[in-house]
Amino acid sequence: MSPMKSIRALLVLTILAVAAAVPAVAQTGFSVLCLSAAPEAYVGEIDVPYGEDFDLYVILAGPEVGAPLSWRLDTVDWAVLGSCCGGSPAFLIGSELAGAPLAHQGDPVLGVRTTSDGCVQQDVVTLARLSFTWVYAPTGPFFLGAAALAPASACDGPSQLLDGRTLRVVPTGITPASSSSWGGVKSLYRD
After folding, report:
1. Which of 86, 90, 152, 173 has its CA 20 to 30 A from that of 49?
2. pTM higher than 0.85 for the full model?
């Protein structure tokens, strides 16, 4: 790499580091964007009978459980994590994105940009209701989540870095697999 390119690369890295640090200094607490078992507050665990579809909610809330969102939402980019293909026995089958004053572009698995008309400020902003179904019988509890893809834009302040929380899904009505000896497993593959 030429000396000029090295200097440019160092300059770009320095600018990015400073830009990333500025919102963090101005921000006193990290609001959360996460999946919840309830639309109006963060509820981090849900019991679901195996075989029955279930709904979860994408919410934007204050930094502590029960704390209100302290800023007015302009735009936030988010996506669902672990809704397929990541070892989760549950699969996203439907989404109902919140209506006015929120507008959405995109898909919850690939990414959604949610924009607020009029700068919404509520204790909890419910962005979507998501429906899940079972792909296979789970062996026990598992986690799903949603996360911000970038800092959220606030209407009257700096961008907001967002934290996340996991949601624990506890399947009920599943029969544990019977234990088997290694010899029993090998016998299944003998001629």
Report:
1. 86
2. no
Phi, psi of 138 (to 5 degrees): -75, 155
For 63-150, where are the E strands, in sequence order? Answer: 73-81, 90-97, 102-107, 111-120, 124-134, 142-148
Q: Are 83 and 109 in contact (CB under 8 A)?
A: yes
pLDDT (tens digit per residue) in 21-49: 444 444 467 999 999 999 999 999 999 99
Residue at 120 is within a domain = yes
Identity at 89, one-letter amino acid code: P
What is the C-alpha to C-alpha distance for residues 61 and 69, in angstroms, rounded to an integer? 5
Q: What is the pLDDT of residues 123-147, one digit of tens each?
A: 999 999 999 999 999 989 999 999 9
Instruction: Select from 160, 113, 111, 146 the least CA-distant residue to 37.
Output: 146
In angstroms, the CA 128 to CA 91 distance is 16
In a domain, 12, yes or no: no
Strands (E) across the chain are located at 31-36, 45-49, 54-61, 73-81, 90-97, 102-107, 111-120, 124-134, 142-148, 153-154, 162-163, 167-172
Amino acid in the structure at residue 120: V
